[in-house]
Design a protein that fits this description.
By secondary structure, the chain is an alpha/beta fold. It contains three helices and nine strands, in the order βααββββββββα. It has a single domain, classed as 4-Layer Sandwich (Purple Acid Phosphatase, chain A, domain 2). Helix content is 29%, strand content 19%.
Amino acid sequence: MLYVTADTHWGHHNIIGYSSRPFATVEEMNSTMVELWNATVTDEDTVFFLGDFSLTGAKHLRVSEDELNGKIVRVKGSHDGSRAVIQSMVVNYYGMKIGMVHKPQDQLEGMDLNLHGHVHGAWKHRWVGKSLEHVQVNVGVDVWEYRPVSLESVVKYARRTIKHQDSYTKRFAHNLTNREEHHG
């Protein structure tokens, strides 16, 4: 199975307060998120990790990739140093072109869906550009229960979001037209 995630920040004490994470210590955060990761991902799965795996320094507090299930493919984030060398990637998922980057402002053009991290809990999705089909989804742990999320779940989430937005836009346009007809 394919999974995506971002922004674990293993070993980063300040991220607990910055992102309002429900952990008292870095050790608790690390052990809980390792447990959640391994309960979700098997050794046969692939995880696309979209940046900020751990904070550089504090080596005794970091988590090793060897502790985590699955094959991890890493996109470089803001705090990853030289471990992750891929800047972006495109995954063809059942005919959908899915762009994967760390920062949302670096989204790839021409994608059916863009996934990113970097913003922690600021949003789970947002619209970019003028077309409703241009939705960005944040796959960071802060909005997906501190664990990787299946690519299938993210695609379903994006489709529901687009469907809901299309419905809202149609209702808004209908209400605006009715208002103009009555007050015109």
